[in-house]
Amino acid sequence: MSRAFVKEMDGLEEALPERPQSSHINYVTPRGLAQLQERVRELSASRSALELRDDLDSRQQLKRVERDWHYYTERVARAVLVRPTAQPGDKVHFGAAVEVEDEDGHGQRFVIVGEDEADAARGRISWVSPLAQALLNARPGDTVTWRRPAGDKTLEILAIGEDPP
After folding, report:
1. Cα 36 to Cα 74: distance, rounded to the nearest angstrom
2. Contact in structure between 122 and 33 (CB atoms under 8 Å)
3. Which residue, among 103, 107, 130, 106, has the nearest Cα to 118 in the 3D structure?
4. Residue limits of the Transcription elongation factor GreA/GreB C-terminal domain (predicted)?
């Protein structure tokens, strides 16, 4: 029988594929950079603890932790810190909190952040998202078109502010 059809136990020892890095510049807010650095510290601690154990489960966990550690270490190394307070306050910029209103009068607040810091449920949107791209450089009183698969939506910029810590 060909070796190609034999399941081998040593396949468990193979390295996991690397997590792909984004092709975009890794802009980060000070908060986003701190979160990435904290994640690297957590993974380093997990790695140290798992290296002390010598069982199959620990070795498998260690591979996942090392893969994630490598990913986040690279994200920190590629980080470009942008201080929102150093940006012009009269137009939407990276790190800004933006209040908008749609054509139905529904208001929302978004903060434009780095890819790793994005959390749509909390209104924190990645700077590369279609919504952020529609908002960037707009001024209060401007209307922008958010191009969405569900249909375009017109938003009016009501206010631009800082994201509180």
Report:
1. 10
2. no
3. 130
4. 88-160
How many Å apart are CA 18 and CA 21, to the nearest integer? Answer: 9
Distances (CA, A) of 125 to 13, 97, 151: 38, 10, 19
Half-sphere CA count of 91, side-chain side, radius 13 A: 8
**Tokens, residue 112:** 């434009």
* C-alpha span between 83 and 39 (Å, rounded): 21
**Total-model pTM:** 0.82
Closest C-alpha among 85, 102, 81 to residue 93 = 85
Crossing angle, helix 56-77 and helix 30-51, to 10 degrees?
Answer: 150
